[in-house]
Amino acid sequence: xxxxxxxxxxxxxxxxxxxxxxxxxxxxxxxxxxxxxxxxxxxxxxxxxxxxxxxxxxxxxxxxxxxxxxxxxxxxxxxxxxxxxxxxxxxxxxxxxxxxxxxxxxxxxxxxxxxxxxxxxxxxxxxxxxxxxxxxxxxxxxxxxxxxxxxxxxxxxxxxxxxxxxxxxxxxxxxxxxxxxxxxxxxxxxxxxxxxxxxxxxxxxxxxxxxxxxxxxxxxxxxxxxxxxxxxxxxxxxxxxxxxxxxxxxxxxxxxxxxxxxxxxxxxxxxxxxxxxxxxxxxxxxxxxxxxxxxxxxxxxxxxxxxxxxxxxxxxxxxxxxxxxxxxxxxxx
Length: 333
Description:
This protein is mainly alpha-helical. The chain folds into two domains: 3-50 and 193-236 and 275-325, Cytochrome Bc1 Complex, Chain D, domain 2 (Orthogonal Bundle), CATH 1.10.760.10; 56-188, Orthogonal Bundle (Cytochrome Bc1 Complex, Chain D, domain 2), CATH 1.10.760.10. It is built from 15 helices and four strands. The strands form two sheets. The chain has a two-stranded antiparallel sheet with strand order 1-2. Helix 2 (12-23) crosses helix 11, helix 3 crosses helix 9 (175-188) and helix 14 crosses helix 15 (314-325). The longest helix has 14 residues, at 175-188. The protein starts with a helix and ends in an 8-residue tail after the last helix.
């Protein structure tokens, strides 16, 4: 009998206790990246920094641009239209709606904590937040605009002209400076101080017992092999359907389902996507690139089936969901 099967034969309480002992080891405090002291080290997840460190004047300019519908061709759709900050940084739709009611092909990811990701978009086609901005502004399904049109509109606004001249004296209102301001605002959109982050910093009472048990299961089942780091994801690619064929079971395959393959043309990249961040996940339903999972419970069961090759009991699902909800941080006004 191998070790894995022997472990499965242990009573559930003993298995959970063993996992807890392996996870919650009190050790010498260590510093987080922002100087905060962590009570638990060697964990796959690290806290979000308390401050982004961005220039507040550029953040303010970027915020106004982010919410300005004049960046779209018909002055009806802003970045915030699909990424409402107060609602978790995404619109809650299966696919977003752009100018003239045009529908996009894929679920809109949250903009919150996007500055922590190693690339942007589900397929990773943009290496930076600055490069990402051309996507929605120029897409005929989203804002359907172009840089000459956008620059002309903003130059007609004396307040914008004054602010750009002060912050970007060499270029003023220019595609590069517009990208810079919006990307700076997006990097500012960190959501620190989630219950789980506070727990890592030493506030044991910040996390419920259910969330603690859910975290043990989250790691024990292997979820943290893809969902780790400060963003709890957003730092690698993975195929959707590691153990079972997700797309065969779902049917109706579209080009958007090809994921990373659309960028590289490499056959083995087909159906690979950037692993989504789990930060603030309770606010960003529906889930997956196709918006197929309406609830966290459904998302957890789908991930267990297709990514881990196993079924998870209902009470285990609820414990993992309790942990996932503890990743909701403070949304900046």
